Amino acid sequence: MNILSLFVLIPVLTSVAIVFTKNMKQTRVASAIGMSIQLILAAILVFLYLNERQAGNTAEMLFTYDALWFPSLNIHYAVGVDGISVAMIALTGVVVFAGIFASWNMEFLTREFFISLILLATGVFGFFISIDLFTMFLFYEVAVIPMYLLIGIWGSGPKEYSAMKLTLMLMGGSALLMVGLLGIYFYSAPETGILTWNLLEISKINIPIEMQRFLFPFTFIGFGILGALFPFHTWSPDGHASAPTAVSMLHAGVLMKLGGYGAFRVAIFLMPDAAQEQAWIFLILTSISVVYGAFGAIWQKDLKYINAYSSVSHCGLVLFAVLMMNQTAFNGAIIQMISHGLMTALFFALIGMIYGRTHTRMINEMGGLMKVMPFLGVVYVIAGLASLGLPGLSGFVAEMTIFFGAFQHTDFFHRFLTIMATTSIVVTAVYILRVVGILLLGPIKNDHFLHLEDAKWHERLSTITLVLAIAAIGIAPLWLSDMINVSLAPIVNKISMTGFEFTSLF
Amino acid sequence: MRHELLLTAIALILLVTDIMLKPSQKPRIIPVAMVLFSIHTIAGFFPAQEGILFGGMFRATPLISMMKNVLNVGVLIILLQSYTWLMKEENRDKMSEYFILMFSTLIGMYFMISSGDFLMFYLGLETATIPMAALAAYTHHQTKSAEAGVKLILSSALSSGILLFGLSLIYGSTGSIYFSDVALFYGTEPMQVLAFLFFFSGMAFKISLVPFHLWTADVYEGSPINVTSYFSVISKGAASFILVLILYKVFFQLIDVWQEVLYIISILTMVVGNLFALRQKNMKRFLAFSSIAQAGFILLGMIAGSQLGMTSVIYFVLVYIFSNLGAFGVVSAIEAATGKINMNDYDGLYITNPKLSLLMMLAMFSLAGIPPVAGFFGKFFLFTSAASAGYYWLVFIAVLNATISLYYYLMVVKAMFINKTETPIATFRSDGMTRAGLILAGLGIVVVGFWSQVYEFINSLSVGLLY
């Protein structure tokens, strides 16, 4: 059995096991066991991967497994990982693990909740291990659809509206994606070769430039919608705000990364020429995402909305970096995906825990929570500091790398956008510190808050896991960026072969 | 000929048995019919002799047998699902008619699919249509059902007229009614194009493509639910099969013309079907309009004019049979048990009837084309087929339409899982036959997609397609 297939198999088996559980306790224990195994497996994968690389294995993808599925269309079940996907898998493992413990007290339809959640995780894991475009697309949709039920059934606020909006917008994205992927498939073989869905094989050839021009927007926007590309980000605030805690964590933490990862792995990697030509349009859009998201967060009063808009801003930064198309920026984009995944999951977990106690998410109704729940308060501050890019935590490393990479472009256009985007850091600081000030410090506004308890063991477990991961990246980013850098080489090589001079456009 | 002979024999056996049974013993006809038809379905899968009969009027190829088998599986599921409804008091004295009529239309469809010339094709088509009108009017004491029968017979008479006019023009311009001869002599002269358009309009009535779809909603709503599912699945599937065969074999010279026609009609059908389905509250009408939209997707697969196109159409019809019968089966079971048929009656169904709701959800996802169920694969291959001929924008419009359709399919899921109500449908348990029908449909929805051999098998049969 290939180790990567286990990442899909274990969640499926866990779901099957959950079907046979009898009560809430059994259900959550089963889910916790399954996802712990998954987390351990992710750790083992990182270890094995580093070992292989040390041993001098220079293959582009490791642990590959390839089985023919639909021979007549040359569809394979093909899996394999490089440093980037290993990092993403590790992120997913951590977030899902934390998510299970954050929703420990889910009482309504417990079994169904955990099955949907784990099914979602299956899609995400499957997406990251796939190197066949067909299976990638399949897992992408598998990851999206449980969201409808998760938000619709267990959500809060205008949940039905948000769930429908989110599902339809993301499926609209997959409509674009479908066209893009089909186009790539039918141009995947020069002249007489056999058509293929395999990413690596397609990357060896050059898709004709006219087709690239046509297909790139489809593919990029298709993934971009999931990555909250302006103006297609509107599903994100509503969806995140209405979703139950674990789902917000998973969605903002991991699912949105599918967009960034896909845009990078498929759109830019396979169609670099068109990417260079059209990057300016999307750079403008992503810059708007970055700044608009940050400003949007300032006006919000609902904790979840604040965080959702901040996600738009941070995920915009991922796409922004991807479009800068040089090694440093790519590196930053990947680290940003992981860093944002961790800290936004932490935020949503904390918001869920606070909401569970105070029964409100409006910041002006709260205050002085640090006094009654010091643990949650401190963790909230840590998450905030990571988010605004304090050195020593993951956010700093990511943003620093991105802007460093972006500034390597010497023309006015790129520099201008980069400077615009950096303003988001300041704005982020404004809304984070404002929330920390109102929410945690100051007087306690409501007597009822005096009797609130601090975090329980499962909540501590959930948050500490995430904090440790954030700190680890912040303190020792080198092992992560080394892992990524090796795998970036083929992608950067392919882009540099195009020889397109961006400055000639302006 | 095995399919036709066996089924004719079964219909005759049922007729004779029915005469010999006393009125109190009438319900015994049901198990007899089921067993016989199951045997027939299984027998269909054994390899049959290839060849031509009656001087070229009748053809048998593995591909054609496969098409008939696909239809058989669908009919079997429908028969199983109709058990509860058939056992009702009002249907007691006309049980055998249900089977005999249904088998007669099926025989007609067999002949239609196997036809080697336009005469046999037309005979088959009419044999399939006229008993269908009787089926639509099966519960004749209800005005709606009787009305459905009349509407069906009138509109099919009209469409047959148009079709026949096209056929006579074809004969006039080529001097032959044999498919092989017509294919040889067919060109792109204006009269031949006109003849084709008449022929296509006639077929469009049968498949209920926009703008020839208006009869569908009333007929579907008025007929008994199991007959409706027969119309929207089997009859539509058979007509799609013969349309794709004739387009690919007889009118291949006209490919530029029919690609254009299919392009426009498929977009129209998807859009109009979707827009109408959006607002339906009655489950039967809802499924009827959504099946119009699905027909648009079938056309999309045909447009490629290649082996891939043929395979994707047959495969999609197979998947569509399972998914739509899953949905119809649930609606029928609920109607039989409680008489409720509106979407808001389904509120909170998951709490009281979780298994039915799960099956319904799978069917809805499959119809909408959501992985990992079979519908995803079916749609994906249709899109692949259209894209292979370079119709990227068409694919884009189609996928957008699939997204729109997801909205109303999700409305059903929402009703069952999310909406809350004081008076949900009470927990009930259907009888064994109905459950077997539902399980078969559910299995199909789950298995047919992942199990790539099904697709590959159909694909291997479509090889020797163009002659």
Task: Walk me through this protein's architecture.
The complex is a heterodimer of chains A (506) and B (467). Chain A has one domain (3-499). In chain A, 75% of the residues lie in helices and 3% in strands. Chain A has helices spanning 3-19, 24-54, 83-102, 110-129, 133-144, 146-154, 159-186, 199-204, 209-226, 235-242, 245-270, 272-299, 303-324, 327-358, 369-372, 374-387, 394-406, 412-440, 457-475, 477-497, and strands spanning 62-70, 75-81. In chain A, helix 2 (24-54) runs parallel beside helix 4 (110-129) and helix 3 (83-102) packs antiparallel against helix 19 (457-475). Chain A starts with a helix and ends in a 9-residue tail after the last helix. Residues 501-506 of chain A have low confidence and may be disordered. By secondary structure, chain B is an all-alpha fold. Chain B has one domain (2-461). In chain B, 76% of the residues lie in helices and 1% in strands. A two-stranded antiparallel ribbon of chain B has the order 1-2. In chain B, helix 3 (62-81) runs antiparallel to helix 19 (432-450) and helix 12 packs antiparallel against helix 13. The model of chain B has no long low-confidence stretch (mean pLDDT 87). The interface between A and B is medium-sized, with 34 and 31 residues.
In short:
Chain A is mainly α and 506 residues long.
- Sketch the topology of chain B as an H/E string, one letter per element: HHEEHHHHHHHHHHHHHHHHHH
Tally the beta strands of chain A: 2
Largest interface: A-B, 34 and 31 residues
Main beta sheet strand tally, sense and closure of chain B: 2 strands, antiparallel
Shape of chain B: globular
What is the share of helical residues of chain B?
over 70%
Query: If you average the pLDDT of chain A, what whole number results?
Result: 85
Strands of the widest sheet of chain B, in order across it, are: 1-2
Give the terminus-to-terminus CA distance of chain A.
Answer: 53 Å
Number of helices of chain A: 20
Principal-axis shape of chain A equals: globular
